[in-house]
User: What shape does this take?
Amino acid sequence: MHSGLFAATQLFAALLFISVFLAPTAAWCLIAFIGPAVFANFYLAPVLAQTQGLVDLRMRGVASAIMLLIVNLIGLGLGPLMVGWLSDALTYAYGPDALRWALMSAALTILPWAAVHYYLAGSTIDADLERAQEGSGARALSAK
Assistant: This one.
């Protein structure tokens, strides 16, 4: 898959998140959340596959585990901390809606940032995969 597609899905998810955070009721918010939840997580399976394609056969499980650990440390570790800090900072200006604006600010900042990085990574992925295959071929020949 082309990295431009991943970048586009992240940008589309960011736009869809606007409808989630500006929904007038909780029910509309949950309905509106379906689209961005799908598009924001569209990257995961292809990225895991690419990660496994870049490493030797015996290292695939470890590579996927490390990648998921990093994603979760950042997303589940830093994400709530930063959104909470931003929400506290916005409380004086927005009162009870501060969390809504903090979440929307995070989505509209992080998802476009991710899109840029997916696009940039796509410019080297073919060469990286080729180098990984050449390296695994050399290791296979030396093992015989």
In short: The helical segments are 3-21, 26-32, 34-40, 44-53, 60-94, 98-122, 125-143. Residues 70 and 77 are 10 Å apart (CA to CA). Residues 3-143 form one domain.
